[in-house]
Specification:
six-stranded parallel sheet; alpha/beta; 337 residues
Length: 337
C-alpha cells in the first residue's frame, strides 16, 4: 500500500502539520529534524503530490542546476554530488549544460521557471544583472564554483587563491624558477583567484611571472594543447606549467609529448580540480583537489536554508579548502635551469 502523510507522521512521532511544514519548507523546525523526516519519507517511499503543490504555489521538490559543460569532468562530478545530496533530502535535480552561451542560459532559466522549480544553483558564467536580480526575487539562488559579480547571491566556492599558492609552493620546493600559467578567461573569478595566488607566492620569493607565460584560453583540452605548444617553443621555455583545470593540463601533456619534451624530467605540470582525469593521464597529474562532493552538498544545503526565509541583502559565501595531491607529473627542476 502506498505510504501517506499519516504514516510519515506516525513513524516520526510528530503531527501531520509538522510533516506538512517540512514538505513545504515552513515553520520553525531544526535542520536536523527536517533531515530526519525527509529520511523517513524516503524510507517509506512517500511521494507528496508534486502537481498539487505546484498548483497551490507550494514546493515541487525540484531544483535546477546550470553548468557550462557536462562533458567537463569537474562539472560532471559536481553535478553528481548535487544530485546525490538533493536525492538524500527528497529533491530531484534538473541539470542544464549551457556552454556559457547567454541565449542558452536565458532559455534554460525560462524552462526551469515553467517547471516551477524551488530553487536554482548556477555554476555557469552569467553577466546579466537584471536576469539575476529577477531570478533572486522569485526563488532562492546559489552560485556554485564561481562568483557572480553581476548581482550578489549566496555562493559556494573552493578557495581558489589558496589553491594557486599551493601549486606555486610545490613547484618552488622542487627548485623551479621559470614557470608558466595556463588558465581560462579572466572574466571567471576562479581563474583570477588561482592566477593571483600563484603569482603572489612567486613574488614572495622574488620571482616574476612574465605576461607571455600567463596565457588564457577556453577550457577544453585542445585549447590547452594549442596554448601550451606556444609556451614550449624556444630554448627559454618554462620548466613547469600550472594549468587551472585538468583538461588544460591534459592538453599540455599532449603538447609536451609532441614536442619531444619529457614529463616530468624536463617539464613539470600541475593541474587544478583533481577529477578522475588527473589520475588516468600519462603520467598521472599532480593536482590541486577541489572538494567536489562538499561543493555540491553545501550548495544544496545553502539553497534549502533559504526556503521560508525573506530575501536578505546579506549573502553567505562558503569557501572550502583545497588540497595538493602529488602524482608523477612533477619532479625537481633540472640543475641547468
Amino acid at each position: 500500500m502506498k505510504a501517506t502523510i499519516y504514516d510519515v507522521a506516525r513513524e516520526a512521532g510528530v503531527s501531520i502539520a509538522t510533516v506538512s511544514k517540512v514538505i513545504n519548507a515552513k515553520g520553525k523546525i531544526s535542520q536536523e529534524r527536517r533531515r530526519e523526516i525527509h529520511a523517513i519519507m524516503e524510507r517509506l517511499h512517500y511521494q507528496p503530490s508534486v502537481i498539487a503543490s505546484a498548483l497551490t504555489g507550494k514546493h515541487t521538490f525540484t531544483l535546477g542546476l546550470l553548468i557550462p559543460d557536462i562533458a567537463n569532468p569537474f562539472y560532471g562530478e559536481v553535478a553528481r554530488a548535487v544530485e546525490d545530496r538533493g536525492h538524500q533530502l527528497g529533491y530531484s535535480v534538473i541539470i542544464c549544460s549551457t556552454d556559457n552561451q547567454d541565449e542558452r542560459i536565458e532559455q534554460y532559466i525560462s524552462v526551469l521557471k515553467q517547471k516551477r522549480i524551488d530553487g536554482i544553483m548556477i555554476g555557469t558564467g552569467m553577466g546579466n544583472a537584471d536576469t539575476l536580480r529577477e531570478l533572486s526575487e522569485t526563488m532562492p539562488v546559489v552560485a556554485i564554483g564561481r562568483e557572480l559579480p553581476a548581482y550578489p547571491v549566496h555562493t559556494v566556492v573552493a578557495d581558489d587563491w589558496q589553491g594557486g599558492r599551493s601549486a606555486a609552493e610545490h613547484l618552488l620546493q622542487l627548485g623551479h624558477r621559470r614557470m608558466a600559467v595556463l588558465s581560462e578567461s579572466m572574466t571567471l573569478s576562479s581563474s583570477r583567484d588561482r592566477l593571483l595566488g600563484f603569482r603572489e607566492r612567486l613574488h614572495e620569493d622574488g620571482i616574476k611571472l612574465p605576461e607571455r607565460l600567463a596565457r588564457h584560453c577556453k577550457h577544453k583540452m585542445e585549447d590547452g594543447k594549442r596554448e601550451a605548444a606556444v609556451m614550449l617553443e624556444g630554448s627559454d621555455r618554462p620548466t613547469a606549467i600550472f594549468c587551472c583545470n585538468d583538461l588544460l593540463a591534459a592538453g599540455a601533456l599532449q603538447a609536451a609529448k609532441e614536442a619531444g619534451i619529457r614529463v616530468p624530467s624536463e617539464l613539470s605540470v600541475v593541474s587544478f580540480d583533481n577529477t578522475i582525469l588527473a589520475s588516468v593521464t600519462d603520467p598521472p597529474l599532480t593536482s590541486i583537489a577541489q572538494p567536489m562532493e562538499q561543493l555540491g552538498a553545501a550548495a544544496v544545503d545553502l539553497l534549502l536554508e533559504q526556503f521560508g526565509k525573506e530575501a536578505s541583502a546579506a549573502k553567505s559565501r562558503v569557501a572550502l579548502r583545497t588540497e595538493l595531491v602529488v602524482r608523477a607529473s612533477t619532479d625537481r627542476a633540472l640543475l641547468v635551469e
